[in-house]
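Priority: medium. Attachment 1 of 2:
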């Protein structure tokens, strides 16, 4: 088992990232998963045997431990494919409540990236709730992912609309690196949440701060993907408002 150590931002606590391989690791990961998401239903539980089988058959399970050895972060995924090719699907990444906001999510993704690249796969994919602007900023602006599709009822039940994102893992493989530097104009603070605001060849979409506007946001995202746009960034306009940036697919540039 290889290990990489990082120092926690702010308090200097040494953190260790590693691949999970023991049954005890999988038990701890399953418990952390239930605890963070607040799942009590058996149908939403994560099976330790499943994690073991995934790791033995091309999947990934990585963790971050604090100085005391406690598992405070966990991510897992598996090999997937569709008409676009082969990718590694990252099903979940969770961080203990008391450890959130300390860069642990980034450590998990970077360690998972190492595992995936070592397996010969160069793209990672996952899904997230597009109403969560903080998650979107992390996915797009920190990691360098871009949207692949917007999917209604992703988990087969109402209230689970999700944005799919692809993360090119090879160094220098991000086709949208330059356009991510575009800053949202201050005028977006007064724009209608969820509406697409034209900006040259691109579009800005303000993230709703509550339930109002969420349906509009989902409709807009679906239409943008149908029109050949991809989402590449989500940045703050001010302290209360964030906005997505959509650009034409395949290396689109703003005019």
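Attachment 2 of 2:
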């Amino acid at each position: 088992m290889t290990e990489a150590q990082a120092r926690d931002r702010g308090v200097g606590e040494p953190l260790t990232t590693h691949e999970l391989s023991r049954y005890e690791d999988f038990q701890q990961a399953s418990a952390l998963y239930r605890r963070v998401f607040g799942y009590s239903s058996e149908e939403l539980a994560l099976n330790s045997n499943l994690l073991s089988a995934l790791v033995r058959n091309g999947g990934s399970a990585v963790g971050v431990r604090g100085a005391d050895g406690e598992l405070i972060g966990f991510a897992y995924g598996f090999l997937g494919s569709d008409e676009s090719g082969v990718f590694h699907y990252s099903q979940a990444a969770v961080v203990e409540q008391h450890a959130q906001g300390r860069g642990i999510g980034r450590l998990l993704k970077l360690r998972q990236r190492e595992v995936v690249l070592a397996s010969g796969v160069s793209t990672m994919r996952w899904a997230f709730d597009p109403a969560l602007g903080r998650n979107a900023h992390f996915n797009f602006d920190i990691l360098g992912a871009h949207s692949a599709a917007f999917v209604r009822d992703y988990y087969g039940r109402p209230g689970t609309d999700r944005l799919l994102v692809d993360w090119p893992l090879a160094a220098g493989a991000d086709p949208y690196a330059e356009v991510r530097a575009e800053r949202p104009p201050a005028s977006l603070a007064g724009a209608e949440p969820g509406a697409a605001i034209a900006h040259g060849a691109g579009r800005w979409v303000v993230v709703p701060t509550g339930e109002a506007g969420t349906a509009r946001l989902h409709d807009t995202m679906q239409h943008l993907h149908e029109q050949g746009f991809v989402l590449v960034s989500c940045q703050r306009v001010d302290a209360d408002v964030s906005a997505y940036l959509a650009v034409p697919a395949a290396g689109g540039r703003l005019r």
